[in-house]
Each structure stands twice: as C-alpha cells, then as structure tokens.
Design brief:
Arc Repressor Mutant, subunit A; elongated; 5-stranded antiparallel beta sheet; 5-stranded parallel beta sheet; alpha/beta; Rossmann fold; disordered C terminus
C-alpha cells in the first residue's frame, strides 16, 4: 500500500507540487502531470495504481481525460475537484471514478480515501473462475472472457459481479448493492447501480437490451443467471 504509484493531474502548479510532496512524504510514489496531454504521456511511461485528477482543466477537462485513460487501461480514478454538484458527482463516479473528493478538502480524509480505493483493488475479490456458457469471469484479474474475447472490468464492476455471484441464486437489491459495493462512498446514489448494470451489460451481453447473464429480478434488484462454478467457489462476500 505505502509503495503504491499515484499519477496526480492538476493544472494548478502550486497545488500540484504541495500535494505531491505530502503524498510522497506518506510513502506514495507520485508522478505529476500538469494537464491531460501531459498525463497521457506519463501513462505511456508507466501505469500508475491510481490516477487522481482535477475536473476543471483547460484544453482537456478531467472527464475527457478519464475517458482517454479508460480507453487505454482500466486504471482506477479518484476525482479531486471544486465541482460539488451532487448530480455531477453521481454521474462521474458511476461513469468512471472510484471516488470523488471536493475541494477544499481535508488532507487526512483524502489519504484515507486513496488507501480505501487501493485496498479494494487488492482485497475482497474471490479468486475462483466463474463460468456461464459463453461468459467466464476471472475476478482476480478483473476481467471477463466473452465468447473468447477478454474484456477488462473495473474494480467496481468486479465487486458488483462478485456480490451477485455470492448471493446466487437469489437477487441482490439496489440498497444491498450500494451498501456492499460502494460501502466507502459518501451518499451513494441508486444511479451508481443503474449505470454500472448498463455498463456491464454493454460489456458482457450479446445484446445489452436483451440480457441473458445479468438479469433484473421481477421482485426487485439484480441477479446472475444460473452459474456453473469452476473450482470451489466459497461464496465469500466481496
């Protein structure tokens, strides 16, 4: 944890330098980028464990940068921004971010959130392979194999699917998913669940509008279709 590699992206040089120095002092390996283009160059040099990016930046804003990052690799992102609108926060976390911290922030809280995100990357994911017809999940590698094609899963998506697998054959309600998958996020919104389901169906289903693996339960919530388990999956909760 203490040697985790962070990519810090902010167009404010004073804030960038001050935060990088404090994080380095706490044992993180920090690479700095002054904007979107600079950040993408740093990605070409080495993959970080976590990207911390400002939302409001000239030339390439944080949302555009996050999309570019995700197109290259499934690197977790923490948004650090003065934009505090609740709707924006929900949309951003659901679309691409593991967490969202509003400026001005308490440094100790920021470090705690960074450590929680990093810890979720290492823990709470069952190691067994789960197979269902033309779909195989490999949570340990945060990937799915869909009709022979490997698809990257975000840490949130992996925890989401692991939660459903642990509860099979029962459905998991939206409230339960929020408590288990987004336990460390403040004021988690049902939109997080809905957008994650839509994203997963686009990744995993032959037809996202006619899903056969990730199903909406008539009684409420979501469930996985009957799984054939490989190995001794112990149903451990993520």
């Amino acid at each position: 944890m203490s040697e985790a590699r962070l990519l810090l992206v902010d167009d404010d040089p004073a804030h960038l330098e001050a935060l990088a120095e404090r994080l380095s002092g706490d044992g993180f390996y920090v690479t700095r980028a002054s904007g979107g283009a600079d950040a993408l160059e740093r990605l070409d040099e080495a993959w970080p464990d976590l990207v911390i990016l400002d939302l409001m930046m000239p030339e390439m804003d944080g949302q555009t940068l996050a999309g570019r990052i995700k197109s290259r690799a499934d690197i977790p992102i923490l948004v650090l921004s003065a934009v505090a609108a609740a709707d924006s926060k929900a949309d951003l976390i659901a679309l691409f971010a593991e967490d969202y911290v509003t400026k001005p922030y308490d440094y100790a809280e920021l470090v705690a959130r960074i450590r929680r995100v990093l810890r979720r990357l290492q823990d709470q994911i069952p190691v067994e392979e789960l197979a269902l017809g033309d779909l195989t999940l490999v949570p340990r590698r945060r990937e799915a194999i869909v009709r022979g094609r490997r698809v990257a899963l975000s840490p949130t998506e992996s925890r989401f699917l692991a939660t459903l697998a642990a509860s099979m054959p029962k459905a998991v309600s939206t409230d339960q998913l929020l408590r288990k998958v987004w336990a460390d996020s403040d004021a988690a919104d049902p939109a997080y669940v809905w957008v994650t389901v839509r994203r997963l169906r686009q990744k995993l289903e032959y037809d996202a509008d006619d899903p056969h693996h990730l199903l909406t339960d008539p009684a409420g919530g979501y469930r996985l279709a009957a799984w054939e388990l490989r190995g001794n999956y112990n149903g451990r909760q993520p």
